[in-house]
Amino acid sequence: MNHEDQNIEKGFPIDSSITTTSSSSSITPGGTSATSSTGSSISSSISGASSTRSSASSSTNEEEDRNLAADSYERAAVTLEQEGNLDSALEMHQKCLAIRLQKLGEEHPATATAYSNMASVLEEQGHLNKALKLHKKCLAVRERILGRNHVDTATSYNNIGSVLEEKGELEDALDMYYIGLATREKVWGKKHIDTATSYRNIASILEEKGDLEASLEMHYNCLEVLEYVIGKDHIKVADSYHDIASLLTEIGEDLDEALEMHVKSLAVKEKVFGKHHLQTAHSYDCIARLYDEMGDLEKSLDMHQKCLFIRLELLGETHPDTATSYTNIALVLQQDGDFDTSLDYHFKSLHVREQVLGMDHVEIANCYGHIGSIQLEMGNLESSLEMHRKCLAIRQKHLGEDHPSTLTSFNILASILHTMGDFEKSLEMQRKGSIQVL
Known about the structure:
Elements: H1 39-51, H2 59-82, H3 86-103, H4 109-125, H5 128-145, H6 151-166, H7 170-187, H8 193-208, H9 212-230, H10 235-251, H11 255-273, H12 278-294, H13 297-315, H14 320-335, H15 339-357, H16 362-377, H17 381-399, H18 404-419, H19 423-433
């Protein structure tokens, strides 16, 4: 999201340790005590901007009241948006915009910011076309009054790029990101946090387009700037290490470098959050998966267990992420030939998912499939057949007959039935599994 006045521009997660606002913004995040559950406190905050004025105020004071009211609407909107109350936030931004247009006119930086703030909420609500229209209005105002080579104009280019990316218009999004980057490099230079954000946004698009090497170069540019500007022990740097590690893993050419990046990311997270934090658990999970890909099952299992320990402690037994950890451990144990223990973990995952998702969910089907595969390796054909039939039934219902996962189930059942000597049913399953997806 591109909530420029909250420093939540696309490219990095919210960072409460840095509070930087756009130069055209008058918002101070968290500057109001309004909450979504106490609408009266928001109203009183807004009305308070004018209630302290004498009834005999001059026209100048009345204008000041209007501006203060607009500022209050803006602050209230930020608070509501941070709390997830998007409808109320949008209403507050609309009231702010109305005052800005009336008192300041279209050609004013504060009016442009009001357009941008409304657009960001609409984008978060999924109204991408409406968001794009308002972001373009904001850009037009900023280009006219600030010029193309201004940091706020660069932010508008980035915001438009973000919406276009969400719409799947990658080429146009990339163009916007490159224009924003050029402006930021011209105004701030290459060693600036906003320039790093532009590098990361461009890297994301390039990765989506399949240009992995170019994406990797942009991620390294981003990392270099971040390390220079905010130091190595910052969560944004940890995220950059993670991005590079993930991309190197996807490219598959330098897994040792990928591992080094993941370990660096973990070290920062342990320093920032501590060892018992979900962010740290996520790094353990990433490292475990990489060790698995590198064929080091012992280290993979150790990392998955560390991840599971944290998730059990912080999320509890009945959480989807805990179930995922059970499955990950089960799969490593299965590769290592410890079928009995693997089966125990798969059943744990199944029980958690049944409690969280119910009995009729695609994730439940996947659990049945995993259990059936282990039982097949153990030679328990009847049990395996039962599990794969349960898996197939759910996939047929929710994914359809021609989905790749459903076709996989048909073919697995065909193989089991053939092994059991039921050639007629095996052939039937085989025919269903051979349907080509056009």
